[in-house]
Each structure stands twice: as structure tokens, then as C-alpha cells.
Amino acid sequence: VYQLVSVTSSLSLRFSHVVSNFSQCEEFFLNKKTPNIPTILKDGKVQNQTRYKPICQKYQNTYRFATLYDTTNRIPVFSAYKFTGAVKGRPSQAWMIEPQAVDADYEKNNLSMDRGHLLPCQYAADIDAKKSTFTLTNAVPQASSFNRVSWRKMECSVKKILESNCIDANGKLKANLVTGAVPGNNYLNKVNIPSSMWTAFCCYNRNTKKWIAQGYWGKNEKSVKPPLITLKDLEEELAKAYSTNPNPVKVFPDECPRNVKDIKRKRRLVKEVEGDKDRKRQREEMDDCGEGDEFDCDDVNECDCECNDVRMNECDDV
Question: Domain ENPP1-3/EXOG-like endonuclease/phosphodiesterase: where (predicted)?
Fold first, then answer.
């Protein structure tokens, strides 16, 4: 095990552990089982340790999440993390560099690409956890309109699904997620531009006494809305993308159902109440819809942190 030390322009210090396997940060994988992508990661073992680097992401002396990093393409394969609730607000945090991923890779950018988070800042449980997401080993080049609109709406929608459905037997909010990127054929300087991005979640719902799991898959293109798909369909897409057939891809262990097509969601009806000058909104119920969200960002080029729902009508499911 050795440490990677990185210093940003604001002199913030980061320590990330590149390890031979994820045993030091296995807590971020459901039942301590890593995804199985046979050509890359099989039974917790990296198949090509020269190219792929497991990273236990550490910030302020605490492990925050786990990343498998592709040093050839200079992008992460995936980041794995837990969702236990989130705090609002965007931290004052510059992007932290690592020896594998430096800010110069994103300079001279005339392709309308953002540095897009895999683990979203808005999912973090505290301010230090939010800051920890701003490492370039947790970022990929995302088409600006995809990152700022459709992908971010998906992140907000998933967050609301988790908050409504992922209360475990002990009454605590808890879910496991994995978010990844599939390499494409184009590059931003030396950094591969992913052709597609994906995310999956799995959790136990104490109300239904069942496990639930679903995923999203979206092309990294302008204004492409990621469709909600079953975990089975997502794993089949990944098997095609990474040419693992006939060996299947498994993002989560067996307890996560592969064919959940619909999750019961709360819906919200918003009424308009006329005020003196301003319209006041009265929320009767909350739902998990993402259409019409606005985003509270200090810096639109780097912010994945907040979403504020401003819709005035009953919304459709996403």
C-alpha cells in the first residue's frame, strides 16, 4: 500500500491509498462484495494491476468512498459509495489532483466538456464528505448539457427515491450505489471521453420487507436523458460494453433483485396561492420527479451539489 499526495492551488492536501485490493475500504460495497466485471475485476481481484488501480479515497484521515481507476484512459471505471442522507450547501473546494489525474488534462477545453462527478457532491453526508468528491479520480469528461441537465436531474431523482424507499430494519436511511463510465473513442487532451455513463442502487425497504434495485444508463451526449432500467438490463449493457460474454457482469450481490421495473413513489401536488406580489407554493406531498428542477450552483462548470424543485404542477414519473 502506498499513498498518493495531492495539493491543489488553494493548498488543500489529499491522501488517497492505491491498494492491491479493496479490503481497506470494503465497507463501501454491499456485503463487502465488489462489482464483478470479468475482464477488469473478478471476485475482488484486479485482472491487470498495471492498468487498473483500486483507490480507497481518503480525506481528513477518513475513508469516504472507493474508486477503481483506469490509468490508460485516465478516468475511473467506477466509484462505489453509501448513501445515508445528505446535507445541503456547496463547499468552497477546488478540484484536487492526483499523480494519475491532473488539472492540466482538462485545460484547453473547446469541446464543451465538464469535469463530471461519479459520486455526486449532493449525496454526501457532511461537508468534509462533499469536499472529498472533488478529486479528479472521481471525475470524467461529461458533455456540458448532459452533466448540467439530464444527468443531474437523474441524480436528484435517484436521491429522492433513496430517501423515500431505503429505510432499513433499524429505521436508518441506507443504500449502496455504484456509478461508472464506459470508455469511448475520443479524447480531451490525454483523457478519454466516456461514450456512456451508468449508475445503480440497491437497498432494503423495511415497509415492503424487500430489497429493491434499479439502474440508469445514458450516452454521454448533448441532452440525452438517461432511462431508468432494471439491474438485469444494466448488467447486460455492461457485459456488451466490456466484452465479458459469456461471463456475466454483476454490480451487486444476489440479494439485489434483477427485474424490479417500478418502485412505489410518493407523488406531489403543488398548488398556487396568490400573494400580494409573489406566488406562494403549497406542497401537499413530495415525489421523486426530476423534470423541471433548477440547480443551485456557485460555479456551473464544477457544481453537482444542489437541486431545487420549482415546478408548479403535478409532475409525471421519470
Answer: 62-249
Tens digits of residue pLDDT in 21-56: 999 999 999 999 999 999 999 999 999 999 999 999
Reduce the DSSP state of residue 233 to 3 states and report it.
helix
Q: What is the DSSP string of 115-162?
A: EEESS-GGG-SSHHHHHHT-BGGGEEEEEHHIIIIIHHHHHHHHHHHH
**pTM for the full model?**
0.82
DSSP character for 26? Answer: G
- Burial label, 259 (beta-carbon count in 10 A; 0-12, 13-18, 19+): exposed
Closest by CA to 65, choosing from 34, 90, 101, is: 34
Q: Is the dihedral of CA 134, 120, 71, 20 positive or negative?
A: positive
- 290 Cβ partners below 8 Å, 6+ apart? 153, 154, 156, 157, 307, 318
Query: Cell match 479493496: residue?
Result: 22
Q: What is the greatest pairwise CA distance in the chain?
A: 66
If you average pLDDT over residues 230-257, what whole number do you get? 96
3 state SS of 304: coil
